[in-house]
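Issue 218. Parser rejects a valid record. Input:
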Amino acid sequence: MNGSLSFRRYRAAFFFVVALLAAVTAFTLWNELRTNARIDELFGAALEREALIARIRVDAAVLENTVDDHIRATDDDARQLADARMEETLADAKEARLAYTQGLPEGEKELWKRFDETARALAQSARVALRFSNRREAERARQHLEAELRPIAEQLNALAGELAHKDAQETRALLHRRESLRTKTTFVGALVALSAVALAVAVGTSMVRVLRRQEHTIQQQLAELDRRNHELDAFASRVAHDLVSPLSPLRGYLTLIRRSESVTDPDVKEMLSDAETSATRMAELVEALLRFCRAGKRSEGPPCELDTAVSAILLEQDQVAALNGVLIERKLARQVSVDVPAQLVQSIAQNLISNAVKYSAGRPGARVVVYAGREGDEAVLEVTDNGPGMTEAVLARLYQPFFRAPEARGLPGQGLGLATTKRLVEAHGGTLRVRSAPGSGTTATVRFPSVDHPRSEAARSQKTVPAELVSAR
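Output the parser choked on:
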């Protein structure tokens, strides 16, 4: 329970770190995009104000030239053209001044006020000069142009330069503040990211410590479980051995009593026969249990040839198969060696082949195929029958000790054969797989790591030599 809570806390901390890093990344990216957009906006506004100032200065110069042209005009058409140019220039200057006031920085407002008043004074002075010119007072208009209009234009030009310089200063100050804010944000983001990384390292270190402790605990529990399994197997083996000892004389006594001339009652003889049969079944069950307990340990012994060991079992099973009307087909490759003692290979083959014969018996065209050969680096023993097959539910419980399928209840057996065979195969580094389907028969496949043939140099140097198959019925 505590381990589960610890993992929940660590998992929550991990997701918190991931969320924190994602938030920092998203905020940094958003701030960078916003800062870049604001900088572009500031640069655009500064350039636009600079263009408006230049536009007003040009309008002031054009206005001065227009007034001079109006004074020098000799006919009404020229004066009207000058009037139109002057009005157009004044309108353009007014439009530029109005556009400049939008988004005006706070530091430029006082200077802009003076600049705007000077621009208005320039426009007023230009109109006064035109009034004198329209009344044919050219000399007075020239004096007004020289004495008032040009000094105001020069003052406006000077204020425009100051305004441009001030605008550049304000823009640089805004950019500096924006860059400072970006630096602070980046620093804070880096600090948070480093904190998240430190937290992740701490969480990871704690998880590693917890996992190591749990791994150590699991190893101890596995060692304890293995020790108890060995003790249980040893106990079961001792119990089985002790149970076998009294059963043999018991069966002998029952047989002697049943055959004794002193027992003449048929019912008593039948009961003695049933008791003898039960004692025999009990002895077989105890022997099967004893084999099951011993099957979990690896047996030391010389390697054997798979086909030789299987052939010895087939000689025994041929008679049983013939009596039950089952045809056994052999496909045995020579010189396929496994690092398993011959008697254990025979025990495995005995169980698989006897099962195939038992479950195929009584069916039309009953046939069992026994294959032994090499596939890559593995030695394979495969037994296939065309019996009734098994369902998925039966396959899922096939290796459980004492389990018997419903359709096998009427057949002899204790339900320990396949469980013993599986333990025996796995104890020697092999695998056992059973494939079956209702009405499609059953295939049991045993795979062992193959070894080079002990008497064949060719087998040691060429592992891919095709196996020679011998087929017989």
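Fixed in the parser; the record now loads. The beta strands are 304-305, 327-333, 337-338, 367-375, 378-385, 431-436, 442-451, 469-472.
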